[in-house]
Amino acid sequence: MAITPNYYETLYVTRPDLQEEALATIQNKLQDSISTNQGEIIKAEKWAERPLAYEIQDHKRGIYYILVFKALPDASKEIEKHLQFYNTDILRFMTLKITEEAANKSKASQEEKAPKAETTPAPKAEEPETVKPEITKEATTEEVIVETEANVETAQEATTTSEEGGNQ
Amino acid sequence: MDSRRDKRYFSKKKVCRFCTEPIEMDYKNVDLLSRFITDRKKIVPRRNSGLCAYHQRQLATTIKRTRFMALLPYTVLH
Ligand SMILES: [Zn+2]
Predict the structure, then answer these.
(1) What residues of chain A lie within 8 A of the CB of B31, using their CB?
(2) Burial (CB count within 10 angstroms: exposed 0-12, middle 13-18, buried 19+), residue A159
(3) Architecture of domain B13-68
(4) For A141, which residue in chain B has the nearest alpha carbon?
C-alpha cells in the first residue's frame, strides 16, 4: 500500500532575540524537508510574541511560529530533527497530525487575517483571533501526537535546567 | 413553586460545554483553556468542569500540550 501524505501542524517557539538570518536558515530547512517529501506548505506565519508561562533556558518571552503543511510522514520526522538540532534557538516545538478540514480552515483564516496582519501586534493580544473561530469538532479527536520522545525529554531537561539556573 | 424547582435543577445539572457549543478544543486557545485550570494551575476535575468523560479526557491532553508549549504554567512555583 502506498504511503499517502498527511496534514500536520507544527508550532515552534524561538528565543525572542533570534536574528532574522538564523530564523530564515531554520525555516528554509523546514521548507526543504516538506518539498522533498512531496509536500506543500499550507500556512507559515508568526503566531504571536508572548511571555512564556515559565522560563525556558532563562528566556522569559518567546516568539511562536505556526507551520501547517501536507507531506509524507517522513517530512514531520525531518522537521522535528531540524528543530531539535537548533535547540538553543528553538525553545519548544510540537507537531500534530491534523485533519484535512482543519488544515483548510487554517488556510482560510490566514487569508482573511492577511490584510490586518500588519496592525495586530497590540501589546496585550494574549490570544490571536485566528484561533477562535475554528469549529471543527473532529479535528482534535483524530489528532495524533507525533511529538517525539526526544522532544519530551528535552522539555523536561529544559524545565529542570531552568529551575537550576540553566547551564546551556 | 415549579419554577423554583426548575431553578434548582438547572443550577445542579451541568451539560458538557463542548458537547453543546460548537467550540473546538485547541491547545493554542489559551483563553478558553485557562478557564479550566484552578488557582494553583491544576486541571479542574470533572465534578467542577461539568464536562463529559470524553471531553474531560480531551481537555486533559489539550492542557498538557498547552503547558508543554509554555502557553500555560504547570504550577504556581515556576
Ligand atoms: Zn462532551
Answers:
(1) 126-127
(2) middle
(3) Irregular (4.10)
(4) B58
